[in-house]
């Protein structure tokens, strides 16, 4: 299968197929390129990964607080309403950071979807009536799933391996036919 992935590997082996660093040299998306990647890009990507993981943690806490409000004490629903305001704009910050950190593809654009889903949370509670309000819970599942996806794809930047978006479910890093 001499597809796009083999060409990428060949170019990466030659030192190309990356983004130019500030000094004009090419750097790869793999571990070998981390040494020549500008500090600014490494730092921005680390912050992006931290925000992605933090947003995921906030979604989990938000669901926990909602559970408290529904199952334990209805007064906790007020905390559920307020807590969302503390992290709702994180996806916008992630989107801006994607330009500063030369982050491309899904890791650039998915935060906008995350922000849209966050806005939909407000809409389903404040402006929707009847059975459609139950979409609030479905939207929470979508927020969780997308948050997991972004955190998982950017996690390597937090670990300093610089291979975000490259690992598949088996962790082998071989992404045959995977384009996002």
Low-confidence stretches: 11-32, 167-180
Number of helices: 6
Strand residue content: under 5%
Mean of all residue-level pLDDT scores: 79
Instruction: Output the radius of gyration.
Output: 19 Å
The biggest beta sheet reads: 2 strands, antiparallel
Structure description:
The chain has helices spanning 4-13, 39-71, 76-87, 90-100, 106-126, 135-159; strands at 19-20, 26-27. A two-stranded antiparallel sheet has the order 1-2. It contains six helices and two strands, in the order αββααααα. By secondary structure, the chain is mainly α. It starts with a helix and ends in a 21-residue tail after the last helix.
Write the layout of secondary structure elements.
Layout: H1 4-13, E1 19-20, E2 26-27, H2 39-71, H3 76-87, H4 90-100, H5 106-126, H6 135-159
Antiparallel strand pairs: 1-2
Helix pairs in contact: 2-3, 2-4, 2-6, 4-5, 5-6
Give a quick set of tags describing it.
2 strands; 2% strand; 6 helices; mainly alpha; 180 residues; elongated; two-stranded antiparallel ribbon; disordered C terminus
Briefly characterize the structure.
With 180 residues, this protein is mostly helical. The protein has helices spanning 4-13, 39-71, 76-87, 90-100, 106-126, 135-159, and strands at 19-20, 26-27.
